[in-house]
Amino acid sequence: MNIPAIFDDEMKEIVESFIVETKELLEKLDNDLVELEKRPEDLEILNAIFRYVHTIKGTSSFIGFEQMSELAHRFEDVLNKLRKGELKVRSDIMDVMLEAHDLLKVLLSKLEKKDLTPIEIENVILKLEKIARGEVINRDEEATVEGEKFSTVNDGADVLQKVGSKVIDKTIRIDVERLDELINLVGELVLGRNRLMQIISGVVEKFEGEAATRELIDTVSQIEYLTSELQTVVMRARMLPIARVFNKFPRMVRDLAREMNKKVELLIYGEETEVDKSVIEYIYDPLVHIIRNAIDHGIESPEERIKVGKPEKGKIILKAEHEGNYIVITVEDDGRGIDPDKIRKRAIEKNLITEQEAMSISDKDILNFIFIPGFSTASKVTNVSGRGVGLDVVKANIMKLNGIIDLQSTPGVGTKFILKLPLTLAIIQGLLVGVAGEIFIIPLSSVVEVVRVKPDQVHSIKGREIIRLRDSILPLVRLEEIFNLKSNDHREKRNFYIVVLGLAEKKIGLVVDALIGQKEVVIKSLGSYLKNVKGIAGATILGDGTVRLIIDVAQVFKMSAKNSLDFIKL
């Protein structure tokens, strides 16, 4: 191949279009191959797969990408015989076709990096040729890429994204930094709108009834509407369908279940739900670990499931939906569930808690110990689990997003993980609260609920203020103590509010003097000089022109923990 020719100026646009289109085709191919294995007689799926591979073969040949063209050609031969009924879909055929698909992804990734050094594809080509001749492939035969075993069970590093539109003419590429600049300007506009709305309320009070006032109100209302519309459009520009993440899991579930000799069905709902790009970047790894754990720890073997009266095929449900300004992602399995007594025993063995403490912690709260780094109940170490690595990654990534994890599990019935995340991180809904004469803003995405409390409901355990909230103990945090604010009121003599905050799997109660209201706010950096102020995520300008600080919920959780053990148990 004439390598320089494929990257010269004349070919640049063609190659870029090829990469974009082929990524989309490979994404569809991945999903349809898994579906074909479930419905081997479905000719419509088979024809779609054939079209994808045929297109890849033709376009790669046109640009002179010979290795991809050759591999796609042999792949097409097998698919053609399947279409004609000369071959029937078997597990060995599916394995080889999936290997071929993975090699196509590797080749495309190398092209994107402008690296066209040949890789080893002969092994897979030989398998495709054998299948086309009607031979059966031994399952022990493994594909190799550049001398290394090629595995797709945990191919998190190979992230091939799905594009929006088939019609390349209707799309343009925009640098993310430019989009961020646009969002920042819209943020400034929102601040200006809020200030204008505050001013107009004062003008109306003073000059109510005058014609100029009515015109001013109409104009300001129009500006408010247009600003909101512009904000919505710009924010949607950064929104991507969650399918970008969800579409990677059918293949992963298929391969991992096969490796562990289990039967697992993955059901996906709400893949069209959109979320900010910055949020999408953080949720792939958590979902990988949750789903892998569901297959390894949750779903029983077919024999075990039949013994307990369950269908031999386990079920995992992956679901996304909007809930206000949040996205809620649920991962649910119908496996063996999590035994809280087993968690207690393991926590005692690792000296995380005493036997007496273990008995005082509720079953729901004890489940949260699985998020501790290094914590594992697995009896042996495997390629999938047993090293105590996994769910701590889930917790870390959800904390970065100021999200909330809710874990529900019933032994013998199954387990459900519920992840509640903000749709976007740039412009947030905030709860304004009064503390010691100051006003702070709490990101609403971290607020679970607000309760009014009487002084006699507050108790102290080991020097820590707590309240009993339904069936749980809720530790309290006072912002005036964290930020060294002076308070002159006597709260012990009157009722006050507790803002219940959730971060990952933990909850604390923030003691506040007053609830002022809810507002849409733009997070502004404090600059290099003040950027390291603990407990503060940034600032915003309210409609009255005052600058107010936005609470960093993750930092407040850390600052409120007297020691690491307290933080783990809370």
Features:
alpha+beta, Heat Shock Protein 90, 570 residues, five-stranded mixed beta sheet, Four Helix Bundle (Hemerythrin (Met), subunit A), Helix Hairpins
Give the tally of structural domains: 4
Q: What best-fitting shape do the alpha-carbon axes yield?
A: globular
Level-2 CATH architecture of the largest domain:
2-Layer Sandwich
Strand order of the largest sheet: 12-16-17-15-14-13
Helix content: 40-55%
Mean pLDDT: 81
Distance between the termini: 62 Å
CATH superfamily of the largest domain: Histidine kinase-like ATPase, C-terminal domain
CATH topology of the largest domain: Heat Shock Protein 90
Radius of gyration: 28 Å
Uncertain segments: 142-163, 165-169, 563-570
**Which percent band covers the strand fraction?**
15-25%
Structural class by sheet pairing and helices: alpha+beta
Give the C-level CATH assignment of the largest domain. Alpha Beta
Number of helices: 20
Structure, described:
The protein has 570 residues and is an alpha+beta fold. It folds into 4 domains: 3-170, HPT domain (Four Helix Bundle (Hemerythrin (Met), subunit A)); 176-237, Orthogonal Bundle (Helix Hairpins), CATH 1.10.287; 242-422, Heat Shock Protein 90; 427-569, CheA-289, Domain 4 (OB fold (Dihydrolipoamide Acetyltransferase, E2P), Beta Barrel). Helix content is 46%, strand content 22%. The strands form 5 sheets. A 6-stranded mixed β-sheet has the order 12-16-17-15-14-13. A 5-stranded mixed β-sheet has the order 4-6-7-9-8, with helices on one face. A hairpin with a 3-residue loop joins strand 8 (404-410) and strand 9. The N and C termini lie far apart (62 Å). The model is unreliable at 142-163, 165-169 and 563-570 (pLDDT under 50).
